[in-house]
């Protein structure tokens, strides 16, 4: 920000997000502190870096995270390309504005050729209220409202005509650290209780058994680089797929609401705990 | 102020014993400090740092620091950021596991299995390359 | 609504030194795993010391370790005289019920010299077993009184 080239770089970024609202601006100062939200976001999406001068701060920040930028913009090179000499003022005068506009158009045109559905802002999630049980040192949570569960410990959260699907806290705990995900194809139709993708941990491979019927409209691409979100936040950031619902009222007949699933889960946990303790006792004897 | 040639790189593994990933990080640290970056990299105890041992903290602030964590909770990285305010490079064992899907680590934590040992070696190679980069002075800014 | 499963006797938490520089740390961890996996698996649970120390901040996830230690007896295993595990438990969850000092065992069994901090070797593992047996006795005392 102490050079006109930096001011131009900033202006390019601001113009770009105005024209292309699906693009998210990343604050380099916050990124440099190791902000987790940005760290995760960078890993999971295409990144454009815009450097104003030879110090190339933006490039360095991204390369440190071992990420190759999708596009690099170096303002001095752009100035030569468009034959617009930037003035030295720290405010955006006519020349600097013109250069910023040209650069923005170039990036926008190139993005038009690329699948930009991946470059999305992260969802905002509401604060949930949970039922909780503690067994030894493990917490198991079930949202009180809004979620429905099948007996395979997978949930569906209807949101009007669509619904998000994912796995329960119990299932993520049983799976242990999830390392890989495999999504079903977007556009494919699934029936209730069909396999709707799989996830692999250090222990095992498990399927997500769909609690609902419909067409797959989105998958949570963030999980490809950050599958641990399924462990850390199974009901929100760890959502797996989104479907367009066909007839949720019919699907609901075979599902449990939050309170019912909580009872079901508790019983399951206690049975397993007693069973495991018994096996361990038998092993010692 | 120390010259770059006098600086060391401290490796701080998380040392968790709840999962095999902590053991892989620990094993990788040993390979780096005993073999691949011997004389350039040293390890330090995370609990001692968290305890606030003054001389240890001063040393870390004056040198380069690499953390190796066993899981995305990143205890070592987060703790170091809090106590000494910087981490020069960070590694996550689960990233190595993801990059080597065919080498699924055995669940045994102590001792670790063959696949886990191989993963430790791969991680150690990455870490020691970073040690050299940090000491070359090409990467001076904090993570 | 939290439901506590307190109909059964409560498990004992084992927190081993996670120090890396000395053999004591390696012995502490090995002894902890032997107790939890082999000797007293249904009476004990391992608490991860780094997670325990990092807990309290939402993103770290170590709050579960700390909460467990508040409501259950804990045994800390110290690799050296710094007593990091004991200090952490006392600070974040309340006094530990028992502390095991690895150095005492090293002094009492000079014939069982561990090979190195990286690899305990046969004698080191034997020593870890002896330490684990002592911990198991403490677990039995605490488990009954829980």
Keywords:
heterotrimer; A: 285 residues; alpha+beta; OB fold (Dihydrolipoamide Acetyltransferase, E2P); B: 143 residues; alpha/beta; Rossmann fold; four-stranded parallel sheet; 6 helices; globular
What does this structure look like?
The complex is a heterotrimer of chains A (285), B (143) and C (146). With 285 residues, chain A is an alpha+beta fold. Chain A contains 11 helices and 13 strands. Chain A has helices at residues 4-19, 28-32, 36-44, 57-64, 75-81, 94-112, 169-175, 222-225, 229-232, 248-252, 258-284; strands spanning 48-51, 71-74, 130-135, 138-143, 148-149, 154-159, 162-167, 178-182, 189-190, 195-201, 205-209, 214-219, 241-245. In chain A, the strands form 4 sheets. Chain A has a 6-stranded antiparallel beta sheet with strand order 5-6-7-13-12-9. Chain A has a 3-stranded antiparallel beta sheet with strand order 8-10-11. A two-stranded parallel ribbon of chain A has the order 1-2. In chain A, a hairpin with a 2-residue loop joins strand 6 (154-159) and strand 7. Chain B contains 6 helices and 4 strands; from the N terminus they run E-H-E-H-H-E-H-E-H-H. In chain B, helix 1 links the parallel strand 1 (9-13) and strand 2 (41-43). Helix content of chain C is 50%, strand content 14%. The longest helix of chain C is centred in the C-terminal third of the chain and has 25 residues, at 121-145. Chains in contact: A-B, A-C, B-C. The interface between B and C is medium-sized, with 28 and 30 residues. Strand 3 of chain A pairs parallel with strand 1 (2-4) of chain C, so a sheet runs across the interface.
Helix-strand layout with pairing:
The complex is a heterotrimer of chains A (285), B (143) and C (146).
Chain A: H1 4-19, H2 28-32, H3 36-44, E1 48-51, H4 57-64, E2 71-74, H5 75-81, H6 94-112, E3 130-135, E4 138-143, E5 148-149, E6 154-159, E7 162-167, H7 169-175, E8 178-182, E9 189-190, E10 195-201, E11 205-209, E12 214-219, H8 222-225, H9 229-232, E13 241-245, H10 248-252, H11 258-284
Parallel strand pairs in A: 1-2
Antiparallel strand pairs in A: 3-4, 5-6, 6-7, 7-13, 8-10, 9-12, 10-11, 12-13
Chain B: E1 9-13, H1 20-36, E2 41-43, H2 46-51, H3 54-62, E3 64-69, H4 75-83, E4 89-92, H5 93-99, H6 114-136
Helix pairs in contact in B: 1-6
Chain C: E1 2-4, E2 12-16, H1 23-39, E3 44-47, H2 49-54, H3 63-71, E4 74-78, H4 84-92, E5 98-101, H5 102-108, H6 121-145
Parallel strand pairs in C: 2-3, 2-4, 4-5
Helix pairs in contact in C: 1-6
């Amino acid at each position: 920000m102490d050079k006109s080239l930096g001011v131009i770089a900033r202006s390019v970024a601001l113009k770009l997000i105005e024209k292309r609202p699906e693009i998210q601006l990343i604050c380099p100062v916050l990124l440099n502190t190791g902000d987790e939200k940005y760290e995760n976001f960078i890993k999971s999406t295409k990144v454009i870096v815009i450097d104003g001068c030879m110090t190339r701060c933006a490039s360095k920040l991204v390369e440190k995270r071992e990420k190759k930028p999708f596009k690099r913009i170096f303002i001095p090179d752009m100035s030569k390309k468009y034959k617009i000499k930037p003035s030295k003022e720290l405010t955006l005068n006519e020349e600097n504005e013109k250069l910023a506009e040209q650069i923005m158009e170039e990036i926008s045109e190139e993005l038009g050729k690329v699948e930009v559905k991946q470059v999305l802002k992260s969802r905002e999630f509401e604060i949930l209220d949970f039922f909780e049980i503690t067994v030894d040192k493990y917490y198991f949570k079930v949202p009180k409202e809004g979620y429905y569960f099948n007996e395979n410990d997978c949930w569906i959260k209807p949101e009007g005509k669509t619904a998000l699907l994912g796995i329960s806290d119990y299932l993520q705990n049983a799976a242990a650290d999830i390392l890989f995900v495999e999504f079903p194809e977007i556009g494919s139709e699934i029936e209730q209780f069909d396999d709707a993708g799989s996830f692999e941990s250090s222990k095992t491979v498990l399927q997500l058994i769909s609690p609902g019927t419909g067409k797959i409209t989105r998958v949570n691409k963030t999980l490809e680089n950050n599958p641990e979100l399924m462990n850390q936040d199974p009901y929100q950031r760890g959502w797996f797929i989104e479907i367009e619902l066909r007839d949720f009222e019919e699907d609901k007949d075979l599902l449990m609401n939050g309170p019912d699933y909580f009872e079901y889960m508790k019983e399951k946990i206690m049975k397993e705990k007693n069973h495991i303790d018994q096996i361990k006792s038998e092993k010692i004897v | 102020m120390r010259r770059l040639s006098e600086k060391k790189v401290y490796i701080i593994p998380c040392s968790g014993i709840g999962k095999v990933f902590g053991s892989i990080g620990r094993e990788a640290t040993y390979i780096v400090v005993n073999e691949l970056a011997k004389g350039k990299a040293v390890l330090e105890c995370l609990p001692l740092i968290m305890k606030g041992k003054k001389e240890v903290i001063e040393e870390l602030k004056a040198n380069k620091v690499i953390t190796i964590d066993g899981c995305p909770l990143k205890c070592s990285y987060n703790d170091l950021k809090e106590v000494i305010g910087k981490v020069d490079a960070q590694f996550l064992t689960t990233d190595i596991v993801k990059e080597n899907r065919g080498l699924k680590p055995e669940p045994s934590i102590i001792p670790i299995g063959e696949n886990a040992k191989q993963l430790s070696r791969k991680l150690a190679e990455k870490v020691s390359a970073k040690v050299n980069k940090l000491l070359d002075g090409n990467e001076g800014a904090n993570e | 609504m939290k439901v506590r499963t307190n109909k059964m006797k409560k498990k004992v938490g084992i927190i081993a030194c996670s120090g890396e520089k000395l053999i004591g740390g390696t012995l502490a961890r090995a002894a902890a795993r032997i107790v939890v996996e082999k000797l007293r698996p249904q009476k004990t649970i391992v608490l991860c010391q780094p997670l325990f120390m990092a807990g309290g901040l939402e993103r770290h996830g170590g709050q579960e370790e700390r909460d467990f230690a508040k409501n259950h007896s804990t045994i800390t295993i110290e690799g050296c005289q710094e007593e990091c595990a004991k200090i952490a438990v006392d600070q974040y969850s309340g006094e530990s019920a028992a502390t095991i000092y690895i150095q005492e065992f090293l002094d009492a069994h000079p014939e069982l010299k561990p090979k190195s901090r990286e690899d305990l070797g046969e004698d080191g593992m034997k020593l870890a077993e002896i330490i684990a047996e002592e911990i198991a006795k403490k677990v039995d005392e605490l488990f009954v009184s829980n």
